[in-house]
Amino acid sequence: RLSKTITAALNAQMTKEAHASQIYLSYAAWADEQGFSGIASFLFRHANEERNHMMKIVEYILKRGAEVEVIAIPAPPENPVSINNCFEKIFEHEVDNTNAIYKVVKLSHAEEDWATYNFMQWFVMEQVEEETLAMNLLDKMKIAGGEKMSSDALYSFDKDMANASDEV
Ligand code: OFO
User: Could you tell me which residue ranges the Ferritin-like diiron domain spans (predicted)?
Assistant: First the structure.
């Protein structure tokens, strides 16, 4: 059975995943408005992924017979100022989320809740994927000039992103 602290931590993480989904959603809409439909499509797909992460936690809490608490999702941060900045913000957010996940892992370890500890390992590995993905994209942009990327380079980056794999 899930303890009160673990239930609260999982609910908080569930809301964090929903928040991440909203962040991707808002950046996707922003990218689309800027004319970058490929990047927008990548970000919309990722918004769905984060929602799936949220559902994964909801299902786990329910499966363990504990209570799911759906609360308000904080508003996403301000829009990025450039495509490069967009992925920098995404990377920072993913690192932040990794730290939040580690806290749940730590807590489940401390409570010797091995089922939750095991459940959380999927998220640990998923964060490795997502941080690497964001880092790779930032590297790609860096090679193409980073903040000073030419419109040609941005154009082809956007085109690539339309069909880019969401996995590393
Ligand atoms: Fe961005 O990943 Fe969820 O956990």
Answer: 1-145
Residue 126 CB–ligand 1 contact under 6 Å: yes
Q: Is 127 annotated as a binding residue?
A: yes
In three-state secondary structure terms, 165 is coil
Report whether residue 50 contacts ligand 1, using a CB cutoff of 6 Å. Answer: yes
Q: For residue 163, count other CB atoms closer than 10 A to its CB.
A: 9
Distance 166 CA to ligand 1 centre (A): 12
In the block, residue with structure tokens 């900045």:
85
Question: What ipTM was reported for this prediction?
Answer: 0.95
Q: How confident is the model at residue 80 (pLDDT cuts 50, 70, 90)?
A: very high
Residue to mutate, 23, 27, 89, 127, ligand 1, most ligand atoms under 8 Å from C-beta: 127
Give φ, ψ of 133 to 5 degrees. -60, -50
Write out the two tokens for 111.
């409570």
Vertex 27 angle, CA 35 and 128, to 5°: 120
